[in-house]
Each structure stands twice: as C-alpha cells, then as structure tokens.
Amino acid sequence: MINQSNAGVMRRKSDHDNTFLFLTDINSILVSGEDTNGEFCVVHCSVNENDGPPLHVHENEDESFYVLDGELEMIVGADTFLVQSGEYVFAPRGIPHTFKVKSNKARFLITAYPAGFDSFVKELGTPYAEGMEALIEPPTPEFLQRLIQVSKKYNITYPGL
C-alpha cells in the first residue's frame, strides 16, 4: 500500500502488491527505483535458517544490509563475520558477498544504490501469496540456469557457479 502526501512524502508497507518469493526469501520492495528516479531502492527480506544466496558480485550497485532481527553470517570479500540485530554492513559493488541465516529466521533491509536490485527481484521472483513459504524447495538446475541468465541483465555474476 502506498500513501503519498501532497508534499511527496511516501509511506509503504509490505503487502501483496510489492512482495515476492525470491529464491528462498520473502522480499518486499518498500522503495523502488521508480520512486527515487533510479537513485536507490529498499527491500525488506525475511529469510529462514540456513538460507541465503550463492556468492555473487554486483557490478552496478553497492548494497547495505541492516539486520532488524536474527543473525546472518556474512562474507564480504575476504572477511567472514556474524551480523546481529541492530547491525549494519556495507557491501561495495565489485566485491563478492553472500549471507547465510544463522538464527531460526532473520529480517533485514537491503538498500541498493543505484536502484536495480528491486527490478531483479520483480523479474526473477514470484508474486507472494500468504502461505507460499511452505512451498519453498531447493533451487532446481533449471532455476539456477534462469538465475544466471536473468542476472546477466543486471550485471550480477556468481564466482562459484
């Protein structure tokens, strides 16, 4: 739901119009590149224990992660560290990074600048409906091929795939 005042102030929360099942995550696009003239986007992520993306590199955008609750083990470049609620991590473009949820569940915000990650989520994700998380399965070889193909469009690569 978007509420916008006459002064241009925008309010948005997670709902069916902006939420996607993306890999094994539930991602809600709170601020899109369309809202910011491509300057940045903000995505709320809800991820289960032991889930996370493969090691990857964004060539177009920097990313920051702010953990709302839970714990992530993050790899950024040569560094591996545990990130807990209330902590922030910056992952610059061009540097390999990934995360794995170490708690039962984690919720965090990703800000990408410039925007683009939001479009990637929309293109690769499936519009979310309540209860879809019960259908999450490990990615199939066909899905991984699609992931790699769509990622090329957004200049995202996977050193290990």
UniProtKB/TrEMBL annotation:
A Pfam cross-reference name: Cupin_2
SUPFAM superfamilies: RmlC-like cupins
One example GO MF annotation: dioxygenase activity
Signal peptide, first to last residue: none
Domain Cupin type-2 span(s) in chain numbering: 46-106
Keywords: Dioxygenase, Oxidoreductase
Domain of life: Bacteria
Protein name: Quercetin dioxygenase-like cupin family protein
Organism: Paenibacillus endophyticus
